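Q: Fold this one first, please.
A: Sequence and structure below.
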Amino acid sequence: MTDNLTEGLDQLARELDAEHVFHSWSAQGSPPQLVIASGRGTTVWDHAGKEYLDFSSQLVNVNIGHQHPAVVQAITEQAGLLATVAPSAVNLARGEAAKRIVARAPERHSKVFFTNGGADANENAIRMARLHTGRDTVLSTYRSYHGNTGAAIVATGDWRRVPNRFARGHVHFFGPYLYRSEFWATTPEEESERALHHLRRVVEAEGPSSIAAILVETVPGTAGVLIPPPGYLAGVRELCDRHGIVLIVDEVMAGFGRTGRWFAFDGYDVTPDLITFAKGVNSGYVPVGGVIISDEIAADFDERVFPGGLTYSGHPLAMASIVGSIDAMESEGIVDHAREVGAEAIAPALSELAEKHRVIGEVRGEGVFWAMELVADPETREPLPAAEMGRIKGALVERGLLPFIADNRIHVVPPCVVTADEVAQAAAIYDEVLGTVSP
C-alpha cells in the first residue's frame, strides 16, 4: 500500500534533482526519473514502496548487497568513536583494513595506499610506475575504462577519453575480444596468440625503454565483461618482465568477489606489480579505493617522498566499512557463493536465453559478472542500435528489474549474495523483454 505522503516524497526527490543536481555522463535536459530510497540485499525500492531487483549492483559495486547489517554496524560504531582523521596519523581502523586486503593479495605485496575511489587509485598507480621506472609512457587497451581523473581518463580507451585528453604519455592497443576479433582469430588460443603479437609490436614500436607501465583490467568490465583467453595475461606479464615494465592490474570492478574469487587475476596465472581496487572492497558504502603495492616498488619510497596524497586517504569510516565487509564476506562464504551461483544458476539461465532469442549474439562471464551481447543480425553481428537498447532498458525497469546497459550489451551483474530464485526471476523478465525484439 502507498499513500500520498510517500508518493509525494518520490515527486519531491525528482523535483529537487531536476532543479539542483548535475548528473555525470548525461545531457542535463532529461533528468532521471527512477527514485531509490532504500534497499536490502538485491532489492531496492522507492519511497512509495515500488520494488526493483537490482541486477546492476548500482555501478557494479554493491557486491555484498544493499544495507548489509555488518557493514552498516561497522560504519556506525566507527562514527561514534572517530568520524575523521588526517592521513598522516596512525589509526587502528586503517591498519586493520590494510591487513585484510594484503592478506588476500599475492606474496610480497605488503602495503596499501588508500584513495577515494578507483579513478584516483589508477592515477596514483600510474604515478608510482613512472617514478619507479623513470619512464613516461603508459599502455592500455582501447576497450577499457579506468576512471575520470587526469591520467585515468586518458588511459581509458572508450569515447570518454576524447574530450579529456590533457594528460601526457598514453598509448592504446587492442586487447583480446574473440567475438569481435581485431586479429581474424577463430579460437581463444588464436586470439590470445595474435593479441600478444600485436602488443609486442606496439611495445617495440613505442620503444620498450620509454614504457613505464602496461595497465589492464583483469576482466574488462564496462567494455563488455571480456574474459581473457588462455595465456593472455601470463603473456603480458612475461612481456613486462622482459622489458622492465610495471604491470598494473585494474581490479576496481572485477575484485572482491565479482568473478567468484577475491581477486579476478587469481584465476589467470598472473602476479601484478600494482593492483588497483575500489567498488567491491566495501560495496561503495563509503567512497574508497586504493593501490596494493609490491614490496619492490614500495621500497622506492622508504627514503624518498612519494609525491601524492589525499585529504581523505584512509578515512576511518571507509576503513571500518572495509573491515566489516571483508569479515562478513569471509564468515558468510559470499565469494564462494558468487562462484557457485554463477556456475549453477546464471550461466545456465543465460545460455537458455541465448538459445531462445536470436538477438543474443554471445553470452560470456563468470561469477556474478556476465554480459549478453545483443545484435541486429546474428550473421554479421551488427550491434543492436542504441534506440532499441534504450527501449529494452525502459521495459526492464518497468517490470521491476534494474539493468546495467552498456552499448549493445545487457550486463548481468547482481550482488554476490543473489539467490538462484532471484536469478530465475530476473531471467524471466529478460525473457519477456527480449521476446519483443526482432533481430
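Q: Good. Now the second chain.
A: Here it is, same layout.
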Amino acid sequence: MTTIDKNQVGEMVQHQSAEMTAWLNSKALPIWATVGADPGKGECYESIDLATQKPLFVTRRARVVPRQIYSFLEGAKLGWTGQAEDLASGLYKWFLSAYRSDEGYFISSVDVENQVTDQSFDLYNQAFALFAFAQIAGNMPESRQDAEEHASNLLNYLIENYRNPQGGFREANPDKLPLCSNPHMHMFEACLAWEAISADPAWQELSDEIAELALNHYIDPVTGGLREFFELDWSPFKGDNGRVMESGHQFEWAWLLARWGRSRCDAGALIAARRLYDIAWTYGIDETRSVTFMALNDDFSVRDPIARLWGQTEWLKAAIALAETSQGPERDAYLSDILDAANAMRVFFASAPDGLWRDKMSPDGDFEDEPAPASSLYHIVCAISELNRFAAGR
C-alpha cells in the first residue's frame, strides 16, 4: 500500500478529488447522458460498447434506472452543467410507466420496446426504487409530493406482503431461500437518503431495524465478517453458499454502518465498521494488482479473485467514512487508503475510451473485453461525491 509523508496527504486527496470530478463532469456524465440515454424518450440503456461507443439495445434491468436518476442529479451538485433535472424527470416517468406492476412492486426488466421480459419481484429492485424516489423528492421540489406518495405506497406494499417476522424482508411470497443481506444493504442506503430529507419516522425506524440485523445477524459474531446468504431466521445459510463474504460488501457495509453509527452515536456500529474494513483490507485486496477482488470464504480464504470496478468505489467510500471518525495514526492510515482506493478506481478507467470503464479484471491483471455497464455509474458518482465532500471539508 502507499506510504507517503502525512503532510502531503491533504494536498494529494485534493488533487485526486479535483481530477476525478473533472473527469466525471467533462467525460463520463456527458456520454452517459447522450449515448447512454435517450433524452427524447426519457429512457436509458444497459451498457455502452467500448469499441463503437454506442449503446447496446438489450434488455434493461429495473435497477439501472434509479441509479441513473441518482447519477445525473448528484452530478449536478458536483458541477455538471448537463440537463440533469430533465433527464431525471424523464427517467422517473419512464420508470413508473414501464416498470411498475399492477400489484404495486417494480418488475425486473423490459426490452427496448418496453415489453416486459421479467415480471418477477426482486427485493433489490424495490430498494433502488425507494432510493430513486428519495433523489427525486430531495432534488426536484415540483415532484416531491408525487415521489413521497410512491415511496410510501411501495414501503407499505413491502410491509404488507414481504415482511419477515424475524426482521427485514423476505425474498419472495411464498418464501424462497436464501435470504440475502445485499438488498437490505441498499434498503438501508435508501432509508438513510430518506432520513436526510423527511421527518417521516418510518424511514428512521427501518434504518435502525436493518442496522440491528446487520450487527446481530449478518455479521459473524466470532470473526466480524459479513455474510451474504441466510436461512429464514437469519442464521447462516447451510452449505457452501453460506460461507460467502464479498470484499466490496464488507467495505460498503462499513461505509453505511459508520454513517448510521455517527448519526446514532452508536459506538458498537463504529467498531463493527472498522472490523469490516479491516477484514476487506487485510484479506480482500490483492497487493499484486492493488485492487480489491470479489469474494472471500468465511475463513477469509480467497473465493473469487475477479476484481470488479464497483468494489474499488466501495473501498474509497469506506476509507473516507472511517477517516472521518478517526484520529492520529489511524486517521493517517485511512487517508493513505483513500489515495490507494482512488488509484484502484482509475485503473479501470485508464484503458477505456473517455467517460467509460472496464468492469472486470482477471487475476493476471487483464480486463475482460465487454461493454461498460451503466450500473457502475452510480457507484462511481457516489464515490467521487464522497471524495469531493471530504476534500472540501478538510
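Q: Anything worth noting on the second one?
A: The two ends are 23 Å apart (CA to CA).
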